[in-house]
Amino acid sequence: MTAHSLEQEIDTQGHAAANGATLMRSLFSLLGEKWTLTVLTALRTDRRRFSELKREIPGVSQRMLAQTLRELERAHFVDRVVLSTTPPRVEYALTDLGRGLFPHLRAMREWALLHEDKLFGTATPQTLPPQSG
């Protein structure tokens, strides 16, 4: 491998890592929004109309529910399904991508619970690992 091709490979890996980091920041930003996980969970078992979601999610405003659903649509976690009835009926449903998120969320929750004492400053100085360097 020449020095030039090695440089290109390192650049490509660095670019992929940067893109991956940006993707993860965007994903965690969306998942960290106040209503995102609540809306995803409400849609987990069945399609719901907007009014049903509004009733099932205490405290969410109409504006925030609409905004959250739009963001979840944009991320392809939720589909907006327009039914050809009179009057037209709109329902929201998880996509395959949205349903596929749940095992990963469950794994992250289990990991967080396992390491709860070390996360977010809850560990005592005696339980923190020694700092290097």
Please supply descriptive tags for the structure shown above.
globular, Arc Repressor Mutant, subunit A, mainly alpha, single chain
Structural description of this entry:
It is a single chain. By secondary structure, the protein is mainly alpha-helical. It has a domain at 35-122: Arc Repressor Mutant, subunit A, CATH 1.10.10.10. Helices cover 57% and strands 11% of the residues. Strands 1-3-2 form a three-stranded antiparallel beta sheet. The two termini are 34 Å apart.
The major pleated sheet works out as: 3 strands, antiparallel
Question: CA-to-CA gap between the ends?
Answer: 34 Å
Number of helices: 5
Residue share in helix: 55-70%
Class inferred from helices and paired strands: mainly alpha
Order of helices and strands: HHEHHEEH
Poorly predicted runs are none
What is the molecular shape?
globular
Strand elements, count: 3
What is the gist of this entry?
This protein is mainly alpha-helical and 133 residues long.
Write the layout of secondary structure elements.
Blueprint: H1 3-32, H2 36-42, E1 48-49, H3 50-56, H4 62-74, E2 78-83, E3 89-94, H5 96-114
Antiparallel strand pairs: 1-3, 2-3
